[in-house]
Automatic annotation (TrEMBL):
One Pfam entry name: GvpL_GvpF
Similarity remark: Belongs to the gas vesicle GvpF/GvpL family.
Keyword Signal included in the entry's annotation: no
Main location: other
Database matches in PANTHER family: PROTEIN GVPL 2
Keyword vocabulary terms for this entry: Gas vesicle
Subcellular location: Gas vesicle
Name the UniProt record assigns to this protein: GvpL/GvpF family gas vesicle protein
Superkingdom as given in the UniProt entry: Bacteria
Length: 249
């Protein structure tokens, strides 16, 4: 068995400095493997803990997953502060540095295109949540219709109001996304997150990422819709995970 495996975080331009980060996954030192005008940001990791079998088990351990993912992203973010970065899939491991150099040779054109696509740009995220409708519901039956009829009428009015509010919020989210995409170099939509993940009662109606060189126009669009039927949250800047990540073959 090899003395160490090589954990790959991302690929950058060869001329960039090493990422300014104390340690990577598993507390390992972060270094670079340079070749073909590119640099792979890597760490040497324990061959037992990062073997294929161990990784399968570890990926089911939520505590390990959270800790390792945070360390992975911290390295990628540090690399992104120095220049364009093409992140790779979480928990990507190679046998040795020669295999990394082979990757840079075989997929150099893809990495180069990804780096050029995000060069001078960063990723911002925008999430939109439906604002509860304040519109009046349908008229309730007149007193005397009976408590059962009144209850059913109120429930129907509430459902109709919620449905109208959801339709309005979805339409508004589509319009907002078109405006945001128009001021970005690229955009990507993601599925709406479940309220159990967002920690919010409001329904998510927009979950998107935007690649921009200057966030001023993006912020302007978000501010313009501050009082609309969708409450927007702008997050970032982030390393361009949505626009430069390459899947491993």
């Amino acid at each position: 068995m090899a003395d160490a495996l090589v954990y790959l975080y991302a690929v950058t331009d060869a001329g960039l400095p090493e990422p300014a980060v104390d340690a990577g996954v598993d507390g390992a030192r972060v270094r670079r493997v340079v070749g073909h005008g590119l640099a792979a940001v890597v760490s040497s990791v324990d061959p037992v803990r990062f073997s294929e079998e161990s990784l399968r088990r570890s990926l089911e351990d939520l505590q390990w997953l959270e800790t390792t993912a945070r360390a992975h992203h911290a390295v990628v973010d540090a690399a992104a502060r120095s220049g364009p970065v093409a992140p790779v899939r979480f928990a990507t491991v190679y046998l040795d540095d020669d295999r990394i150099r082979g990757l840079l040779a075989e997929r150099g054109a893809e990495f180069g295109a990804a780096l050029d696509r995000v060069r001078g740009r960063v990723e911002w995220g925008v999430k939109g949540f439906a604002v509860p409708s304040a519109a009046p519901g349908e008229p309730e039956p007149a007193p005397g219709a009976g408590p059962g009829a009144s209850y059913l009428a109120r429930r129907l009015a509430e459902r109709n109001r919620a449905a109208r509010g959801q339709e309005e919020a979805l339409a508004a989210a589509e319009a907002v996304h078109r405006e945001l995409a128009a001021v970005a170099a690229a955009s990507r939509r993601y599925p709406a997150q479940d309220p159990r993940l967002t920690g919010r009662r409001e329904e998510m109606v927009l979950n998107a990422a935007y690649l921009v060189a200057d966030d001023e126009a993006l912020r302007h669009v978000v501010e313009q819709h501050a009082a609309g039927t969708v409450r927007l949250e702008l997050t970032g800047p982030w390393a361009p995970y949505s626009f430069a990540t390459l899947e491993e073959p």
